[in-house]
Amino acid sequence: AAEEDRRVVREGIRIARHVAGQEALAPYRGEEIWPGAHVQSDADIDAWVRAKGETIYHPVGTAKMGTRDDPMAVVDKDCKVIGMEGLRVVDASVIPLLIGGNTNAPTIMIAEKIADVIRGRAALPAYV
After folding, report:
1. Among 23, 43, 82, 94, which one has the highest count of C-beta atoms within 10 angstroms of its own C-beta?
2. Whole-number Å distance between alpha carbons of 92 and 64
3. Are residues 81 and 48 in the same domain?
4. Same structural domain for residues 48 and 61?
5. Which H or E run includes 19?
6. Residue 39: its pLDDT value, please?
7. Structurally, how many domains does the chain consist of?
8. pLDDT value at position 98?
9. In a shared domain, residues 12 and 47
10. Is the entire prediction scored with pTM above 0.70?
């Protein structure tokens, strides 16, 4: 992870601890379970995050869609892998940003769109 990512996660853990430590929450608060009260230093928090951090199984944006002249692009507008023949990536990895809900519906929409492209179906007219 980049240093900025580590800094943001550390800050998030410290903010969560601050909120949970408020007197108003005392009747509902037990001992800190994760990462644990003994995990305090930047290095200890970073180590805990590396060992226990998860993606929540909804990763997106790992295969950037773009033009062939974009060195960061993995797929083109038809989800064809740039520089490869006969290979497409048609999943949540082409979604540029994590959405505020489950990734299933937009992934199905992407798959339906690219299925139409593969079959050679014309796009539906846009309605405003």
Report:
1. 94
2. 11
3. no
4. no
5. helix 3-20
6. 97
7. 2
8. 83
9. yes
10. no
* Other CB atoms within 10 Å distance of the CB of residue 77: 12
pLDDT tens column, 44-61: 999 999 999 887 777 899
pLDDT in tens, 66-76: 999 999 999 99
For residue 14, pLDDT beyond 90: yes
Rounded to 5°, the CA angle 36-38-41 comes to 110
Q: Which amino acid is at 75?
A: V
- The C-alpha atoms of residue 65 and residue 84 are separated, in whole angstroms, by 14
- Please give the structure tokens belonging to residue 120: 């050679």
Do residues 88 and 60 share a domain?
A: yes
As given in the structure block, the two tokens for residue 52 are: 């226990």
CA atoms of 9 and 41, how far apart (whole Å) = 13
- pLDDT at residue 43, as a whole number: 98
Clarify whether residues 60 and 115 are in a common domain: yes
Q: Give catalytic residue positions.
A: 58
Domain that holds residue 79: 56-121
Q: Of 99, 80, 98, 82, give the one whose Cα is nearest residue 90.
A: 80
Q: Say if residue 45 is in the same domain as residue 14.
A: yes
Residues 104, 116, single domain; the answer is yes
